[in-house]
Amino acid sequence: MTGGADAAPTAAAPDTDAPTAAVRVADPLTTDAPTAAVRVTDAPTAVPASGRTRVAFDRADAPAASDETWTADPRWTDLPALALPTGRTVVVAAHPDDESLGVGGLVAELAARGNPPEVVVLTDGAASHPGSPTVDPARLATIRAEEVREAVAILSPASSVTLLGHPDGGLAESRTQVEDDLRRLLGTAPVDTLVVPWRGDGHRDHRVAGEIGATLAAETGARLVEYPLWMWHWATPDDPRVPWDRLRVVDLADASVVRRHRAVATHRTQVQPLSADPRDAAVVHPDLIATLDRDVDLLVVDDASRPTLRSDYFDATYARRDDPWGFEDRWYEERKRAVTLAALPDRRYGRVLEVGCSIGVLTADLATRCDELLALDVAPAAVARARERVASARHVRVEVGDVAAHVPDGPWDLVVLSEVGYYLAREDLVRTARAVRASLAPRGTVVAVHWRHPVADYPLTGDEVHRVLHRTLDLAPLVRHEEADFMLDVLAADPRSVARREGLA
Ligand SMILES: [Zn+2]
User: How far is the CA of 118 from the centre of ligand 1 (A)?
Assistant: First the structure.
């Protein structure tokens, strides 16, 4: 939370990358100083043209509202609980100490449940005491690295700690590199939950860290969870920028509250003065530390993500028209089917699973390329029409089935995901993709084809679907066909090109 980064660039010029914390300082030369230097000379509270909420605060002051004021607010007691993340969880801190101050309780709870999160710290924290007569920035970075390792060891001894060491206060400037570093760190293993600083926290490094997190969550299919930290300093419960509707609580056992206290205390350079010199003052206000007595951590979740479309949506669609998408008549559909079939790397397949077969038009074509075909759709009306269409093909079965609930047992030599992924909520798609991967034959292939234009009813766009599939399936990209209207990917466990498969190359 430190790093003088709350003292974002002070030039008032409209800046598309304008800091959330537009903290105006009296003396630009001291913008990085920890306490008195971040003096607010005015209180710009208007929402700038960019639409980004500006926040002004001085961390030398006491928080705008006491902890009692927060907890006495009736909305506080009504906050819904957030279920503890399961699976791979990565906690991102902008600075060494955000992990303890922001989500120390959550990290301790996860550790107690046997699910230690990975901790990544983006900056070196070297800017928390500019002009200090006691410690220079390089030494400070070294000390803070030790502090954060010690803190995480208290919260969650089995957690890994990765220090990316980017410049404190400079995340906006090094955004691309930070994003690349974090992307590399996340790797190809699935990420279930990404915990990052809240984008509205009023601190530039925190905002940028949150934005990078949002980008990578979208890429990986991880659930994004944000944590406010400076909000507890600058906001009052009635401040319209407090995201009450998106706040969730994680209840903490006493042991986790104690661990959070101990972890925060470990950040000695932040909670204790380095010397009597004003430039060495403690960075974190004691009243902010008092909020750590809470037996909860508060997180911001984005529940705007849409749920998976239910079968009644499709029932209604098929009730209106026999062929709602014009599979039978439209040249667009006929051509796309031809592209799909042409893209399949093998002439013939053994066992094929077609997900979301609709009225069976593609099903009939696929039937000519395989020994066995199981076609599924969630809508009984569609299944009935598909069955009629392929009635003469004994090796084809058409069933009512929902892959978001269960992917039929493989091994499948080919799985066809044609115009189906965007009906699923992101987490359902990720889970389904993992199940598909697990059911794939050792040399299995997945072909995915999706409409790219946004559709208001659908939880995801086609492009998002393909990003998630690439990431989650972790198969060799054999074919990518991309045009304005649709995207096609062939992802295969066998990385050989068609020419190599045929011995031509
Ligand atoms: Zn921070």
Answer: 18
* CA–CA separation, 335 and 226 (whole Å): 44
What is the whole-number distance in angstroms between the Cα of residue 279 and the centre of ligand 1? 18
Q: Which residue has the tokens 């074919």?
A: 479
Q: What does the pLDDT read at residue 16? A: 28
pLDDT single digits (tens) 389-418: 999 999 999 999 999 999 999 999 999 999
Block residue for tokens 């998106």:
246
Task: Please state the pTM of the whole predicted model.
Answer: 0.61
CA 222–ligand 1 middle distance (angstroms) = 22
Cα separation, 36 vs 264, whole angstroms: 22
Q: What proportion of the chain, given as a percentage, has pLDDT over 70?
A: 88
91: nearest Cα among 66, 69, 72, 110: 110
Neighbours of ion ligand 1 (CB under 5 A): 1, 94-95, 98
Q: What is the 457 CA–ligand 1 centroid distance (Å)?
A: 38
CA of 178 to the centre of ligand 1 (A): 15
Q: What is the mean predicted confidence (pLDDT) over 238-260?
A: 92
